[in-house]
Each structure stands twice: as C-alpha cells, then as structure tokens.
Write a structure and sequence with these properties.
It is a single chain. The chain is of the alpha+beta class and about 325 residues long. It has 10 helices and 5 strands, in the order ααααβαββαβααβαα. A hairpin with a 5-residue loop joins strand 2 and strand 3. Helix 7 runs antiparallel to helix 8. The longest helix is centred in the C-terminal third of the chain and has 34 residues. The radius of gyration is 44 Å and the shape is elongated. The N and C termini lie far apart (about 100 Å).
Length: about 325
C-alpha cells in the first residue's frame, strides 16, 4: 500500500509540473486572465493531464451544475426512501387444515414465498404452525388484512425501518471503488516497472474484494426492501378467544365472569380427560406402585403389632415393657 501511495503521489506531482509549464507558456502574453487557469487545479489544463493519468473525477467540474445535481439527488432520496417492512402475527383457527392451506395459497397469489415453515402438535392433540413469509412490499398491507379474513388474529405487530442512509452510503462507496478500479487499471496499463506492476495488481485485488462485498450488501438490502417479512404463528383451538370491550356495569361484568368461568371449567375437564387418555399407561403403572406400597406397609405394620402382642403375653420371658420413669437394670432386654 505504501508503494501504491508513492506511485499515486508521483503521478500527481508530474501532473502538477505539466500544469505549471502550461501556465508559464500562457504568461508570455502578459494577460492575467490567461495565466489564471494554469493556477486553477480545476482548469482545462489540469483536467486534461488528470484525465491522461486516470484521475478524472466522475462528477462534473462546474459547481452550479454539481449543486443542482446534489439537490435533485437529495429530493430523489426522500421520494424513493428505502423502507424495510416487517410484521409479527399470532392467529388461531378451529379448522387448522383449511386455514393453513388458505394461508399458503394467499402467499402464492400475492407473488410471495415461504422462507420458513414448521408444524407440530401439543400434548392435547391440537396443532400449531410457524411461518416466515416474504411478500412484495407493495402488497404488505393487503396481506395483513387478508390474514385477518382467513384466521382469527389475536395479536399483530408492525415495523417500518428506513435504511435509506445506509443503502445510499453503500451505493456511494461502491461507485467510489469502481472508479478507483478504473484508475488502477489505467495506471497498470502504463506501468513498466515490475515492482509497480506487482503493487498495482495487489491494490486491484483488494479493490475487487471490496467491490464484491459492497455489491453483496446492496443485493441484501434490495431483497429486504423489495419483499416484506411477516412471522405468523398459527394455533388450533376449540374455541376462539374474543377481544371485547370491558362491560360498563357491574352486573354485566359479573355475568361475563360467570360465563367465562363455566367455559374455563369445561375446557379444564376436557383437557384433563385428554391428558388421562393420552397418559393412561403411566397412570395405571403409578396406581399399581401405590397399591403395592400400601400393601407392603400394611404387612409391616401387622408384623410389628404381632411382635408387640407376643412380647406382652410373655410372662417369664426376657421381654417386657419398662415404664417411662423406671430405671434400666443390667439384665433387662427390650423387644
């Protein structure tokens, strides 16, 4: 990189020297206006020499036209903002098969595609699905509205991210690197020293790598801007959840609470029955283990009771019960 910089400075000094020579030739006429372009690095002499050495800027030299172009470009950026639309939805349905098929058909009709899809089931037999859907950004709002007609939407979040600054900054850097590539290739075509050729080829390789990275970033941004991303989670339920406003009176609230309580108790009984039916083998095994433990405990208790009873009945044997406050004697035996 230091050799490339030295080559760049040498070319720049050569161009400035040629420009100064041109200014001296113009000064022989004794006209101050004629000698001014030789000192102006934006004049015709400098432009011709810079173009010869490959350092001509892509932007126009006239300041008025440049400012006008910048203003137009700023307005264009505001008009054509790069927006990334994303959304997250939770929905439920009582007909899982029909709803999932309608959702996939809707994506196809809108010109989108499924980036990710996963299906599973809970312990009670109900099914669920997760989708990552990409649809054209122009049809983003229409897709969200259509999902509400296919399934019962429980919750929904939307987000719009403006990446215009990042996008246009990457685009500008890419244009700069492409201009740099053209200049390096022009210098390589004129280079005769092997050391300069190796330095220029190394700089060209680094520039090509950076151009590929910036081009990939722009393609990624274009994909995000052109297609919106929606995450949909679909659940199969027995009864759809309702979203209602709070009842205004205490009696209405009490009535709603009573009805919801009955519904909740009914759902609990159904879930319990499904759970027992699904895990009946483990429940049967657990009951057998409990019965076995109870039976063994009863036998041990019966044997212990029989042992104490026999000890009490022995009159001359070595076993007897000592009272609580009675002192222990050396020849006593306890059961």
């Amino acid at each position: 990189m230091k050799r490339g910089l030295a080559l760049f400075l040498a070319a720049l000094l050569t161009a400035l020297t040629l420009t100064a020579c041109g200014g001296s030739a113009g000064g022989e006429s004794g006209s101050t206006a004629a000698s001014a372009p030789s000192m102006d690095y934006g004049g015709a002499n400098w432009k011709s020499e810079a173009q010869e050495f490959g350092f001509e800027d892509a932007a126009p030299a006239e300041p008025e036209e440049s400012l006008a172009g910048t203003a137009d470009q700023g307005e264009s950026r505001l008009t054509n903002a790069k927006m990334v639309y994303t959304a997250s939805m939770e929905a439920e349905t009582q007909d899982f098969d029909a709803c999932s098929a309608s959702l996939e058909k809707l994506v196809e009709d809108l010109g989108g595609y499924l980036e990710y899809a996963s299906m599973g089931s809970y312990g009670d037999g109900s099914r669920n699905a997760s989708y990552t859907i990409r649809v054209p950004a122009a049809k983003f709002k229409g897709f969200l509205a259509s999902v509400g007609e296919i399934a019962h939407v429980v919750s929904q979040d939307q987000n719009a991210d403006n990446i215009s600054e990042l996008y246009y900054d990457t685009e500008s850097r890419l244009a700069t690197q492409r201009t740099k590539m053209e200049r390096l290739q022009a210098l390589l075509a004129k280079a005769e020293n092997m050391e300069d050729i190796i330095t220029l080829e190394s700089a060209i390789a680094e520039t090509e790598l950076l151009i590929e990275q910036l081009t990939g970033s722009l393609r990624h941004y274009d994909a995000l801007v052109d297609f919106a991303t929606i995450d949909v989670r679909l659940r199969e339920v027995i009864r759809l959840s309702t979203v209602e406003e709070a009842p205004p009176t205490f009696a209405s609230r009490l009535g709603h609470a009573f009805v919801d309580g009955l519904h909740g108790f009914g759902d609990f009984l159904q879930d319990l029955a499904i759970f027992l039916a699904y895990n009946w083998t483990w429940m049967a095994l657990l009951v057998l283990i409990v019965l076995l433990l109870v039976r063994v405990s009863k036998r041990r208790q019966a044997r212990r009771t029989e042992t104490f009873r026999e000890a009490r009945e022995q009159k001359n044997g070595g076993f007897f019960h000592r009272k609580k406050d009675e002192e222990k004697k050396p020849g006593d035996k306890e059961p």
